[in-house]
Amino acid sequence: IIAAMLIGVLAIWLITKNLNKIIQTVKKFQQGEMSARIKVGSGGEINKLAEAFNEMADTIVGNIENLKSMENLRRELVGNVSHDLRTPLAVIHGFIETLIIKQSQLTDEDKQKYLSRALTGTERLKKLVEELFELSKLEAKQIKPIKEAFFINELMDDIAQKYKILVEEKKIQISAEGHEKPFMVFADISLIERVLQNLIDNAIKFTPENGQIKLQINEKAQEVEIQVTDTGNGIPQDQVPFVFDRYHIGDKRVSLDTNSTGLGLAIVKRILEIHNTSIDLKSKIGEGTTFSFILPQYSV
């Protein structure tokens, strides 16, 4: 009887000791010590309880971090919108105000000119808003790629044909090379099309008259490398690390382009990140720039 009592007391002491440790850890977590975790031994119901608590704590901490990230993105978006919409709004307001105040003094030609500039301002404003929200959704991971198998050759050829009329106005040649062999990739076709469009738009802005833009495909083992190359002035090496940042204007070329929002390459980077790949940049002053990224080949 005495031995049984001693064993019982010892068992109760061990159980309560472990429970007290669990209670203390739970109280620490409750009081805001988010790193508090229960030490897990081997086997037993107490250890299962500890594992369940630790998993729950990790989930709670992860959710809190996501909420903080979303809040930071929201604040950043509000700040960006309020700052970047100010200039085009001021331009539109100025032209319309001039039309109202000096209506009787302006010729029909001047009125048409001011209205055209105001319309251009609204178009740029619309584009800026759309790209701001697109980038914010990508950064908040609200856009999930819907992957499917498709021929990247066909997509690049179609895009090159669509841009031919536009680049002809600047006397720029655009061509698709290395497309003799069909390559099937696995990705979100609409998002990859957006990537290529942004890269080509960027190339058109910085390629002078009689320049060239090349779309090229290179096979690499089980992957496909896509390149967009231009014969522009190139990017200084000290600016290369910042090219994919928001609103990067580098040597002021973007600021001189009224059609640019400064968000195109940032969107490219985010789209490729959700495809678990990255964008590579090689540039040489006076020779041009090449952007390249890799997609997995589709295999049945």
Account of the protein in words:
It is a single chain. The chain is α+β, with helices and mostly antiparallel strands and 300 residues long. It has three domains: 2-67, no CATH class; 85-139; 148-296, Heat Shock Protein 90, CATH 3.30.565. Helix content is 56%, strand content 15%. The chain has eight helices and seven strands, in the order ααααβαββαββααββ. It has helices at residues 2-30, 45-84, 86-101, 108-139, 152-169, 189-206, 253-256, 264-273, and strands at residues 148-151, 173-177, 184-187, 212-220, 223-230, 279-284, 288-296. The strands form two sheets. It has a five-stranded mixed sheet. Strands 1-3 form a two-stranded antiparallel ribbon. A hairpin with a 2-residue loop joins β4 and β5 (223-230). α3 packs antiparallel against α4 (108-139) and α6 runs antiparallel to α8. The protein is elongated and about 110 Å long. The protein starts with a helix and ends with a strand. The model is unreliable at 249-258 (pLDDT under 50).
